[in-house]
């Protein structure tokens, strides 16, 4: 039986539901052009970057009129910032982070977003100090679903892949954990709840559903 020595968390959508505000912001912009942005389409870029699917490029292509992508991104950021004022940490997040420290676990964060954005969110919600290492999309060659971020986290924590557990909310994040060979607990948010998760080790509706210590005992 392998002893778990480290936990690695995604950020956007898992600790803080930033994904729903982003989707709603883009949906609002699409609707201003009398266009729809189906959730299952937008979900392609959740947890990754826009290399596979770019909602801004798609808008410009569908609108068949002049769409300034930079201006559209600024508008989306403004709407997102307004919607984020209503957001809090997801249920059970603080308890999981506190329990991880109490249990003597190493704690890392691995996100496809850039470091400036991640640190801004962690500071705003006063949880930055919980993390022993932080790995972001601007520090690796490939973001999720590639394993680079999780492999970097393992190296920084000096643990083997079987000694860690990843917590994710997106398909791209789950694929990244799978590709790194690390067990993954999926905790979807409102936007990702409908996605076809299949290769996870365990699934929870929220961290509030099961204490971290009980979950780790179950996984061990």
How confident overall, as mean pLDDT? Answer: 92
Number of helices: 9
What's the count of strands? 6
What overall geometry do the principal axes of the alpha carbons give?
A: elongated
Q: What is the CATH topology descriptor of the largest domain?
A: Rossmann fold
Extract low-pLDDT stretches: none
Approximate strand percentage: 5-15%
Biggest β-sheet description: 6 strands, parallel
Distance, first to last CA: 6 Å
Following the backbone from N to C, one meets helices and strands in this order, namely: EHHHHHEHEHEHEEH
Gyration radius (Cα, Å) is 17 Å
In spatial order, strands of the major sheet run 3-2-1-4-5-6
Q: CATH class of the largest domain, please?
A: Alpha Beta
CATH architecture of the largest domain: 3-Layer(aba) Sandwich
GO molecular function: hydrolase activity; metal ion binding
Protein name: HAD-superfamily hydrolase, subfamily IA, variant 3
Keywords: Hydrolase, Metal-binding
Organism: Evansella cellulosilytica (strain ATCC 21833 / DSM 2522 / FERM P-1141 / JCM 9156 / N-4)
Question: Could you explain how this protein is built, in words?
Answer:
- This is HAD-superfamily hydrolase, subfamily IA, variant 3.
- Keywords: Hydrolase, Metal-binding.
- Belongs to the HAD-like hydrolase superfamily. CbbY/CbbZ/Gph/YieH family.
- The protein has 220 residues and is of the alpha/beta class.
- The chain folds into 2 domains: 6-17 and 90-219, HAD superfamily/HAD-like (Rossmann fold); 19-84.
- The chain is 41% helix and 11% strand.
- It has a 6-stranded parallel β-sheet with strand order 3-2-1-4-5-6, sandwiched between helices.
- The longest helix has 16 residues, at 69-84.
- The radius of gyration is 17 Å and the shape is elongated.
- It starts with 5 loop residues before the first strand and ends with a helix.
- The mean pLDDT is 92.
